[in-house]
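Structure ticket #2291
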Amino acid sequence: MADSTHDSDAILRGARSALDANRQGGRRTGGRPIGEGSARLRRRNLVKRVKLIGVAVLAILLAAMAAGIILNGIGFAGVMLTAVAILVALLVFSNFPRVKVPRRADLTRTQDARQLVARTELWLEHQRPALPAPAVTLVDRIGVQLDALGLQLETIDPAHPAAAETRKLVGEHLPETVEAWRRVPASLRREEHAGATADARLSESLGRISDELDRVTRQLADGALDDLAVRTRYLEYRYNDGETLADTPQIAAPEKN
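Resolution: structure written out below.
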């Protein structure tokens, strides 16, 4: 019986290791997140997996307990079957459901700024393993820029020209650039054509997109900075330069005889 307990513990340790290996959303989707948006989607998926594992393990244990009560014990075979069932549940739900990588056509099907940013980041993560090293560095930088831009887009009118420009840049130009590079056969990506290789052109295009994201971020920040400056000047006038209630001399009430 001690050996069976040891075997069961070994099985559970192996299952926990499999779960830990998949906590970042799976290696097949590009490794670590490039931004907070995609990380949020991965965390949501992880929470769902943990809940499914909890429900499955609880159901298996309850079934084993019920069988033990009805059969007056489940014996060694029953204990091993329960351990195997728990192992299967852990292995299955530590890998499924996987984080759903959006298709290229799905990126622009949302008007929500956070969703657009998160989907684009997740899509880029899926492309990253195939990209050349200089492009990977740029993709990581773009992920940080997208996080900042997504927060700004939440606070402005969707009809704002900068918002429309950003949606086109993030949802169309960025993925189209990567897809154009992927259409070039891998054997030809390092061969020079019209003065540059496909890898070099990809890095150049991503660099320009990064610069444009920085420009749009600054453009949106200028409006926020102007609003803050106006508010600060008002507060300075109201509470420093202007006369306040505390600074107004108080007239003493006449004493009653």
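Closing remark: Confidence is low (pLDDT under 50) at residues 1-8, 10-30.
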